[in-house]
Amino acid sequence: MSASSPRRVLLDADTGLDDALALAYLTAVPELELLAVTGVDGCVDGIRAAHNSAMVLQALGHPEVPIGAATGQYDGIATPPPVQAFGPSGMGEVVVGPPDEARSFPDSVELMARILDRDRLPTTLLCTGPLTNAAKLLRDHPGAARWIDRIFVMGGSIAAGGNVTAAAEFNILRDPEAADAVFLADIPTTLYGLDVFVQPVISTDELGTRPDDSPRARLSHLLLRELAALFPGRGAFLGDGGAAVVLMNPELASKTSYPARVELEGTHTRGATVVDRRDSQGGDWPRIDFVTAVDPDGIVSEFLRQINRKEAP
Predict the structure, then answer these.
(1) CB 279: neighbour CB atoms within 10 A?
(2) At CA 102, angle to CA 97 and CA 104, rounded to 5?
(3) Residues near 42 by Cβ (< 8 Å), separated by ≥ 6?
(4) Three-class SS of residue 92?
(5) DSSP state of 252
(6) Are 220 and 242 contacting, i.e. CB atoms less than 8 angstroms apart?
(7) What domains can you pick out in the chain, each with its CATH number?
(8) For residue range 173-220, what is the model confidence (pLDDT) as tens digits?
């Protein structure tokens, strides 16, 4: 891949409001090629996530992007029910379009493997939902997975604890076995966790009342207004949209590498990301790159710049 080639990205998502913001951003960036969007069980099930992705991509003017769907866990262990922060549809009150209930999708993992085997080029896997599909890809298709140059994960935390339990963040808790398998894989992995997730926020003043006149700007405006309404008094957090911005603009964040594992058994700590911050940092735990700080204003500025960028005729 030459220096001028676009960055190749597979997005694996439990598509809800902020995953849709990530989609709006990823399809706007000229330096990025979005190869596919695959659904995973999370805040909605993997089939609904695929339908949401299809509707969002259609609204953004990118119906050509392949979509996959998948359900189930990495090893079949029962997990807590989804936390429906954005309602049963995952999209709050935003109606992008009716899902095509007759539409079927290829399996998420098989779709990713097929693309990686076909192209045999370095590709980044961006995961904004649980890591079930990522772990299955690594386990079932090691030949294809060797083309993944980095796994960039929205999930976990260093010191912020959890948002579902005192210790565990939702995406990791939803399938801890899968998350630990990804940690243990010999692939560079970055976690964009709760420590920074809530920091990039667009105020209601910045949102204004009218978006720019483009499908991307109009849809993004609707998504952001809904997020601001769901969390009154704080504005609209970019969430997964912020993770997508940092993926493409690493200068807007600071990262530190730590040994880390995922707790699989603790009565009160299952799903916690256990980070070894001792000076010795010894042992045989895999080293994970954690995003430790971000430039919230810079992330918001870059997001809005791309969302409002005029398309070439």
Answers:
(1) 5
(2) 100
(3) 13, 14, 49, 82, 129, 130, 170, 171, 174
(4) coil
(5) G
(6) no
(7) 7-307 (3.90.245.10)
(8) 999 999 999 999 999 999 999 999 999 999 877 776 555 678 899 999
